Amino acid sequence: MYYPTTKFDQYGARQLPKEDVSEEIDETADYDKDSMGETIAQEDGVFEILYTVTTVMSNRCLKIKTEKAIVTQQDIVDFILEIGEEKITSIKFVGLGEKYLEIGGNYNGE
Fold first, then answer.
1. 67 in any annotated domain
2. Source organism's superkingdom (predicted)?
């Protein structure tokens, strides 16, 4: 573990800092925002979008993977325009934001 204020005693042993160096973690950070960074409100419609990402690995090799994004009805068009509609493979309505937030963002595609 890295300690930014590490000090050593007279024998060369590391002395741990007296202040707490741990950061506060926002437990809702993973699921209370959509893929565009907007906070999901209870009344928002929430959608799951699957899209493909293609990466050229070498002259003869392409890496194609499917990514998942969660977006609200306010951002769905902007997201599609940003990604490119030709890359979209599916769009599913998850439910209202209230339902999505209730399940803690653990939507499994059903």
1. yes
2. Bacteria
Q: Using an 8 Å Cβ cutoff, are 71 and 80 in contact?
A: no
Question: Other CB atoms closer than 10 Å to residue 81's CB: what's the count?
Answer: 9
71, part of any domain: yes
pLDDT digits over 68-79, tens only?
888 988 889 999
Nearest to 46 by CA among 101, 84, 8, 94: 94
d(CA 106, CA 51): 19
Query: Rounded to two decimals, what is the model's pTM?
Result: 0.62
Domain around 64: 46-105
pLDDT at 27: 46
Buried b (16+ CB within 10 A) or exposed e, 25-55: eeeeeebbebbeeeebeeebbbbbbebeeee
